[in-house]
Design brief:
Shape: globular
Helix content: 55-70%
Distance between the termini: 58 Å
CATH topology: Hypothetical protein af1432
Structural class: mainly alpha
Largest sheet: none
Order of helices and strands: HHHHHHHHHH
Strand content: under 5%
CATH architecture: Orthogonal Bundle
Number of strands: 0
Number of domains: 1
Radius of gyration: 18 Å
Bound molecules: nickel (II) ion
Number of helices: 10
Length: 217
């Protein structure tokens, strides 16, 4: 199958699979990651097909919703690509990216080895910050029955993936434990530039949030 057709087909498959999600990993998250990944790939001269397919399939079976099974994502992606007769090399490249992609805690490194992987990781991280990132974070917290904020519970630096995965803290802590760290973890220059604006928007938001919490604004 020509790569354009495969991308098109994959797009509709993923849209159908994720349409009902209310946790911030719905189709429109994929759409945004795909869109920004395409742009970064152009700037960085990367393989568009690998980038687009990995972006489209990166949350097809996220570990957060599969009882912690980190292999559910790459397995599902491989199944789909093989079913559509994608070349073995392409399947490998895409699945490798998906299995390395998830953020696993502040002090747990998740290195990407290819430029295509770096781009998809950047695009996914960009969607976690800024105005959209704020909306997604509260949607996810609500889905997991978390408090918006609790002034007595300070943020935690997660030393391991297990620790991060089992964390039940309030949503404002998530900004300090993950979102505000992402700007410095962007791989590509293009993403670093985009991240600057999104990061400062979040900082302004948090300043305002604490002020309102205490009746000071
Ligand atoms: Ni994602």
């Amino acid at each position: 199958m020509a790569s354009k057709n495969l991308i098109e087909k994959t797009r509709y498959h993923v849209e159908k699979e994720l349409a009902g999600d209310s946790s911030g990993h719905d189709w429109w998250h994929i759409y945004r990651v795909w869109s920004v990944a395409k742009k970064i790939a152009e700037e960085e001269n990367a393989d568009q097909t690998v980038v687009e397919l990995a972006a489209l399939l990166h949350d097809i079976a996220d570990w957060k919703f599969n009882d912690g099974d980190e292999l559910a994502g790459p397995k599902q992606a491989a199944l789909w690509l093989n079913k559509n007769k994608a070349p073995l090399k392409l399947v490998d490249a895409v699945c490798k990216i998906i299995s390395t992609l998830s953020f696993k805690g502040a002090n747990v490194a998740t290195p990407m080895t290819t430029i295509e992987g770096k781009i998809v990781q950047d695009a996914d991280r960009l969607d976690a910050i800024g105005a959209v990132g704020i909306a997604r974070t509260f949607a996810y917290g609500g889905n997991k029955n978390r408090l918006i904020y609790h002034p007595d519970e300070a943020p935690v630096v997660h030393e391991s993936f297990e620790h991060y995965k089992n964390n039940k803290g309030h949503t404002i802590n998530h900004f300090h434990e993950k979102l505000l760290l992402l700007k410095d973890r962007m791989n590509t220059q293009t993403a670093k530039k985009i991240a600057e604006g999104r990061h400062s928007f979040m900082q302004n938001y948090l300043n305002r949030f604490y002020k309102e919490w205490n009746g000071d604004a």
